[in-house]
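Standup, Tuesday
Yesterday: got the pipeline producing structure tokens again.
Today: sanity-check two examples.
Blockers: none.

Example 1:
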Amino acid sequence: MRFKKGDKVEFIYGGTLTQGVVNEIRATNHDISYQIVYFGGEKKIWFAERELLSPAPVLKVPQFVADWISRCKQKGYDLFLSMDYEDSDMSYEMHNWLTFSDENQEILARAWLDGYEVEKEPLYYVRLPFASRSTDFEKETTYTYIIVNITTDEMQPYTSNRNYGSWKAELTESEIKGMPAGDIYWQFAVLVDEAEGEA
């Protein structure tokens, strides 16, 4: 496997599995060597390609699962108690996710034991058609966007989809559906990535 500068790698050093980052690469006729930076960038060491591994991917979980794991560990629960469906503190969303499939129970156990990263939720614009006009060649639609003040939860229409100050236009599904008339606004939600591609 060929690594490139900036790749994360794992290697055995002093009998311990250690992680580092490829800093420099040297190729000869017989082998490729990599300079690895580790221990917070304080140490450097050279390894042959055959001595390096790609790190295992980190398990990703939804935010509500991360919140549940954190809450259970703060309460001193063990893994068994974290899966107790009868726990009155368990959110409806967490209960549904956990009981939906055996695979989700395994994901919770792996996240509990091995660690996890929180999945990034997709972001949306609430894009409302504002006005249409026809030119000789095509029909042009102008849009207005719903923006939300993150400190006051106030919302208002705005002519741009750009965030400014404490106002943001990029919203998660739960933020949109949690607004007054959120189910109606959700019908006008457009993925940020898709909307940027149209611009």
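Example 2:
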Amino acid sequence: MAKEIPIFIQTYDPSEEDELRQIVKGLLQGLKQAGLRVTHVDLFDLVIELLEEKGFLEVLLKEESSWAKSALLETLQNVSEPTKELVPKLMAAIGKNPQLTLITGSGRIYPFLRTHAIIEALQPEMVKHPVVIFFPGDYSQDADGGSYLRLFGTTPNTKIENPHYRATNLAYFETPSS
């Protein structure tokens, strides 16, 4: 596992979104108090920042109701394209020297961004510290190496075809009983 990219997926029930935000807040506070350099990045907040930087946010807020859904989706996809737009912003938000990064907001950027596309775009830029992505849904890996992310537990299974895709489901780790 020494050469594995340290990306982990922590799934949770989408109905527990508010609780997860409180858990992440407490986790950040506790880890920082323990002396760890931890960063937290919300993908939705990053997309909002990108929209603001490119001058689209105000336009979208004022005119969204008059846009065709396909035009809105295309605009959001273009502004937040993972490889050229979102991941460079994400890497800047992560910073230079954290020991752990927690990423939230993957459900709030759907359908214009998919978590697996972000992970694939993140890999070439990958940092050497662990990254945990909180995902509202299910994540499974099958024996032939296929990976499946099912957002909200309801979207169809779509096998992630990139053979270099690496993310470990934290649910696969056993924790000792107290």
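Quick observation on example 2: The helical segments are 17-33, 43-53, 57-63, 69-79, 82-94, 115-122. The mean pLDDT is 83.
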